[in-house]
């Protein structure tokens, strides 16, 4: 059984054209899989479908073998709590400390203050930000802000992390640091689905990548497309 599976998935935004056209792929438990392709290819749409921010208009999206079409609207928040999400622009709350940002997913889950503080510190330690818990996000570098975003994504111990262009706002050295951090969590058993233009990084790391073109998997060499849209 796969943690995530897309079977002949199509997706159409309201009043729009089909964004995905029969996409098939499987993400094995413990795998780190990249989605590449030019802007508009449908990478973010794949992540939104997995997070149930959208529903497929054709085919099936399965998580742990369960068709997400059967998840009632009231159960969507519970589905999201199984996931960690990481964004290009970090999406930290700028009026709250690093600690409070990372604690948020645990507050939502109703953890006691003692458990919460211990787990936030463990997450900060894992991303190398111990000692910065009182800082406001804006006082951190871009790489540090993304590491705070990663701590927030992993603090509730999700089985799957969805990352949308996580290194898009980072210089190459910080981008590599972020990918190495993903690999550490991956080695600890967390599955990853990562949308990115950073073909060079993927090649350097050697994980599987699916290349999307106009809403389907393409066998074309990804470099050509990434240069067009870089
Ligand atoms: P990528 O992440 O690969 O850049 P997206 O999944 O964001 O691609 O977008 C795929 C296509 O869907 C694009 O043509 C985009 O314009 C369209 N699209 C994305 N979001 C919406 C939306 N909310 N409403 C209508 N069309 C959208
Ligand atoms: P939110 O309203 O903060 O997105 P949800 O109830 O939708 O909260 O999601 C529950 C959990 O799913 C979060 O605690 C987090 O682990 C993950 N998650 C979902 N959406 C996001 C998001 N936009 N930013 C960070 N984590 C998210």
From TrEMBL:
Entry protein name: Cell division ATP-binding protein FtsE
Protein function: Part of the ABC transporter FtsEX involved in cellular division. Important for assembly or stability of the septal ring.
GO terms, molecular function: ATP binding; ATP hydrolysis activity; transmembrane transporter activity
Highest taxon of source: Bacteria
Species this protein is from: Panacagrimonas perspica
GO cellular component: a single term: plasma membrane
The family this protein is said to belong to: Belongs to the ABC transporter superfamily.
Keywords: ATP-binding, Cell cycle, Cell division, Nucleotide-binding
């Amino acid at each position: 059984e796969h943690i995530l599976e897309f079977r002949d998935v199509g997706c159409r935004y309201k009043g729009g054209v089909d964004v995905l056209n029969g996409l098939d792929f499987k993400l094995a438990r413990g795998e780190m899989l990249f989605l590449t392709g030019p802007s508009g290819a449908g990478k973010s749409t794949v992540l939104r479908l997995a997070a149930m921010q959208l529903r497929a208009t054709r085919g099936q999206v399965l998580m742990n073998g369960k068709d997400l079409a059967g998840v009632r609207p009231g159960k969507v928040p519970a589905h999201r709590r199984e996931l960690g999400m990481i964004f290009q622009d970090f999406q930290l709350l700028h009026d709250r400390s690093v600690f409070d940002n990372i604690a948020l997913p645990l507050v939502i889950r109703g953890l006691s203050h003692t458990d919460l503080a211990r787990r936030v510190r463990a997450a900060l330690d894992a991303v190398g930000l111990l000692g910065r818990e009182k800082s406001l996000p804006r006082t951190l570098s871009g790489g540090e802000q993304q590491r705070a975003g990663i701590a927030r994504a992993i603090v509730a111990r999700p089985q799957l992390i969805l990352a949308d262009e996580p290194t898009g706002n980072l210089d190459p050295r910080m981008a590599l640091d972020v990918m190495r951090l993903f690999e550490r969590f991956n080695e600890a058993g967390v599955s990853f689905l990562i949308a990115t233009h950073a073909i060079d990084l993927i090649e350097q790391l050697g994980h599987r990548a699916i290349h999307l073109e106009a809403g389907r998997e393409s066998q074309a060499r990804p470099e050509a497309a990434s240069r067009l849209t870089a």
